[in-house]
Amino acid sequence: MKKVLAIGDLHCGSIIGLTPPSWFISEKRDRRIAALQREMWDNYKSAIQSIGDVDVLIVNGDAVDGHGRKSGGSELLTTDMLSQVDIAYECLSHIAYKKAYFTHGTGYHASNDGGEDFERVLAEKCQGSIYDELRLDVDGVVFDIRHHIGSSSVPSGRFTSIAKTRMWDALDAERSDRDSANVYLRSHVHYYAHCGEAQWSAFTLPALQAAGTKYGARRCMGTVDWGLVCFHVDNGCLAGWDVKIYNLSNSELEIIKA
User: Mean of the pLDDT values across residues 230-258?
Assistant: First the structure.
């Protein structure tokens, strides 16, 4: 049995991204955010401790948050991209893994105006490798992994994009006389969804950034899932997966009494 831990959308450097204690903000600055950072970190440590050692770690994009131009950097712990890489590295250093694989996230978060890919620096620090799209064979189970995927404003539409991913791969496999993948992993949309049939399964991974950015709060609709997924591969088969999703009490919308 091999364990494959898949995480994405850490958004390290954001005040509501995954943050280790050495980067916590003070309660004097923002008591709610300080409590949220602690809650996320405690849940993260609890999750990875319960999973234990893993054979493969997949970090599926947007590990760092970027310059935050849409909010003028007002929602960042630091605008220094290399410091954001250090934050992400500190988070990942708590995971016991044998091999690490990364995918590039969105340019807005993972690059600056010069187009540098800072997640490549993170992958090198973790002694891993990074790809635009990764096709990974884990003991005969082929994972197709990419960060970006389309979202949906209706609950029933959340499965459409990942099902479409499988359809295109199956058509391409037919043309090129190769086998299609068994497991499809996407991130970017910050919610967990799963669909599949007997020979394949497709997932959008939960995020490790909480809800509540200015952009999300003012413009976006829908639920956010915070957590991670661990897959179990046994003798060439996907034997199952553990989904760890947490409700963040400090991320809930406050009710104001008139």
Answer: 89
